[in-house]
Structures are given as C-alpha cells and as structure tokens.
Write a structure and sequence with these properties.
alpha/beta, Rossmann fold, 5-stranded mixed β-sheet, 12 strands
C-alpha cells in the first residue's frame, strides 16, 4: 500500500488550485510553505519521578487574512510534516468559510492514553511556556484537536495569563464556558458538517433519514450521530468504528446510548446488540451518508471503489487520498471536502474570539444561527466553483480558499 506524506498531498492540492487560478510562481511558493515554524522540546517530570522530553511544534502556515488559527494535537505519530499539512488545511478552511483568520496548527509527539492527568497538565503548560511569545489573539490562536480538549485549553490559558499578567481568554478557543468559552463550540464541527449534508441532500434529492455510518467516534463523530435527528429529521446509524474496532446493527444504534457507552468504556466495541465488523466494512457499508471522522488517509484507492454512500461528509482533516478523490468523483459520489465540512469548529472558535474581545456572550441559538449561515453560504460557494471550474469538490473548495488567500497576499504587497 502506498504511504502518504500529508504535507506533499496538501502542497499538490495548492499547486493544482493555483494552476486553475493562473497564479504566478512566487505566489505559489509562498502558499505551499508555512510562513513560520517553531520546533521545541518540553521536559515533563513524570509520575514515577523520571523526566521525559517531548518533541513539539507550532506552525503558522499563513496569516495574510488574520491571525493564524488552529488546533494542537497530542499524538504518538506526530511529525513536522503532519503539522505542516494540517496548518495549511486551516488556512484554506478559514478562507473557504470567509473568516478573518489565517491557518496554523500545533502538535506534541506523545501518547496521551498512557499519561496521567497531572502529566498532561504539565505537558500543556510546558507547551505554552515554549510558544507564549508567538501566540495571542492578534497573532496565533490555538484550540483543541486530536486528544486535546477544553480542559487542556483551560490549563494553557491559565499558563499564558500567568506569564503575561493579563486576563486574555481570547488567546485560545474552545475553553470551558465558565472561563471565556462560547455556547455551541463543543458540537460545532459536527453541526457544521451535518448542515452541509442538509444542503447536499436538498440538491441531490437524497433522503437523510435513511442509513448512515461514522468512521471514528471521537468528539466530531459522536456529535454528528446526535445531531442527525435535530438537523436532518432522523437517519439510522448502522455502522461505527473507533481506534479499537467497529460495530454494525442493521436496525440502527441509539446515538445517545452509544455515546454514553463509548464515554464509559472508552470504545464502541461490545455495544449491546451490535455485531463486530472490520474497519473497512464501515467505510463500505450500504448507507446514504458516510462521515469519515478519524485520522488522515483512511479512504484510499483500495477501499474507495467499494464505497456505496451517496454523500461523503469529511469531518476529519485529510481523510481521502488524491487517488481516492478521483475514484469517488468518477463514481459520482458527492464528497463534502474536509476544509468545508469540518469548518464549523473553527467558525465557532472565531465567534468565541469575538465574544471574548468584548466580554459579552451570545445565546446558544445565536451561535447556531450564525454557524448555519456561514456554512450554508460556504457550501453553495463551493458548489458554484465546482460548476465554474468543472473539477471535483475538493479542488473546487481549494480554488475558493486559495483565491482568497492569494488576493490578501497580493493586497499586502507580499507577492
Ligand atoms: N481543530 C479544529 C480544526 O481542525 C478547530 C480549530 C480551531 O477552532 O481553531 O478545524
């Protein structure tokens, strides 16, 4: 099986979009590389008394349209190139939904599942001590991502405020509500994705109340399951997977019970009434809608020909390889690409920054309404680009994002 370097993939995507936009070489070179990269080590005294050194990065891909914005991941397979790729995707994501933000990403190579709460807190605080001078509401605004959460953000914000001697909750987003977080942030990624599915179903005439499947049952996957009823009026969740295994039930799972089970046992595996299946079978399940919500490159040229879903809504970053993209396109499967489908999270993060700035907080219904407006508009802008350029949805979304960022770079006189 071919192995992918996500950074190569995203550079390729930018080049393709740039060609369609007739951008000059200097602009392309600027856009395929991060503007700033920080690499550092974080020493943490572990519970057994030993000291462990963790390798970490914060990468600001582009800040022509506003401060860099994007999550921090704690993951054992983290490398500089995964962060570079993800930082770039944040630039295109914020541009596709037309937020006044750039793109960035951070990561620590570690195995959070094997670390205690105290060790994780030390790691989070050490991370902020290393990057404090490079982040801030007007510079670079982190958020949670894979294996980090609002508690991680609370520790990080506290460390930042301790260093800066200022109350500055907007330095990062997706904080707990009690300390400057916003309503509606926890389910925002999934809400944005399911909103785009609603628009797609309307255009394509797909019935959203039939079967759907979710690959990856972390925050985004769980919330998508719960939101189907509210946004789409139903739908039967028949296949689900997480890193430990996959399950199936032709009659559909009760999303609430499944989420509770996952939160108590740590996995969906063994859920009462389910049959164990393989990871591949989730992707290939007989469903109308498939949500990839795990890590990068899960849909590849091997499984793509067997995907039966009519709509693939990418809640995770980079789930589909370039070869798989073309296969899905030829099969007439409607892909809602990651930089659009998963943009709800950063959209509500932006709302959080706005609310933190004037210290006045919106009702949940206001957040939901504004999120819906942003995502619906972005979805239809990408549809327009698909028609204009006659290309697959990912490339069309990239064209929309790259055009906006290139324009900002030009206006600033950078290229
Ligand atoms: N980690 C999320 C993403 O990849 C959210 C980033 C943010 O809110 O800044 O889109």
């Amino acid at each position: 099986m071919k192995s992918y370097n996500s950074f190569d993939v995203t550079q390729q995507q930018v080049r393709e979009a740039a060609r369609l936009l007739n951008l000059d070489e200097a602009t392309i070179e600027l856009l395929v590389w991060p503007q700033k990269e920080f690499k550092f080590t974080i020493p943490v005294r572990m519970d057994d008394g030993s000291v462990k050194i963790f390798h970490a990065w914060r990468i600001q891909h582009n800040y022509a349209r506003g401060p860099a914005k994007g999550g921090i991941r704690f993951h054992p397979d983290e490398t500089v190139d995964t962060i570079r790729a993800l930082a770039g995707w944040m630039t295109w994501k914020t541009a596709v939904v037309d937020l006044p933000l750039g793109g960035g990403k951070g990561g620590v190579k570690c195995d959070p599942k094997k670390m205690s709460e105290r060790e994780l807190e030390q790691l989070a605080r050490g991370y902020v001590r290393a990057v404090a001078e490079h982040i801030g509401i007007d510079r670079d605004v982190p958020a949670p991502d894979v294996y980090t959460n609002p508690q991680t953000m609370a520790w990080m914000m506290d460390e930042y405020e301790t260093i800066s001697h200022h109350h500055q909750p907007g330095v990062l987003t997706d904080k707990p509500l009690q300390i400057g977080g916003t309503e509606g942030r926890r389910d925002a990624t999934a809400r944005g994705g399911v909103t785009t599915v609603r628009e797609a179903c309307n255009i394509l005439g797909v019935d959203p109340t039939k079967n759907f499947a979710i690959q990856g049952f972390g925050n985004a996957g769980q919330r998508a399951a719960l939101l189907h009823e509210e946004i789409l009026g139903g739908g039967k969740l028949v296949a689900v997977s997480d890193s430990r295994g996959a399950i199936f039930n032709a009659d559909g799972f009760n999303p609430k019970e499944l989420v509770t089970y996952k939160l108590t046992t740590g996995s969906v595996v063994g859920f009462p009434g389910s049959r164990a299946i393989s990871h591949e079978e989730v992707l290939e399940a007989n469903v109308e809608i498939l949500y990839p919500a795990a890590l990068e490159n899960s849909i590849d040229e091997k499984n793509a020909p067997r995907i039966k879903a009519k709509i693939v809504c990418e809640l995770s970053n980079g789930p589909t390889t370039p070869e798989a993209d073309l296969i899905l396109y030829k099969k007439n499967i409607h892909v809602i690409p990651d930089i659009l489908a998963s943009a709800g999270g950063v959209t509500v993060s932006y709302f959080e920054m706005v609310q933190d700035s004037y210290s006045y907080f919106w009702e949940e219904s206001v957040v939901h309404h504004r999120l819906d407006q942003k995502l619906t508009k972005a979805y239809h802008r990408v549809q327009e680009a698909i028609r204009e350029k006659k290309v697959h949805p990912r490339l069309a979304a990239m064209v929309v994002g790259v055009a906006r960022v290139a324009e900002a770079c030009k206006l600033r006189g950078w290229v």
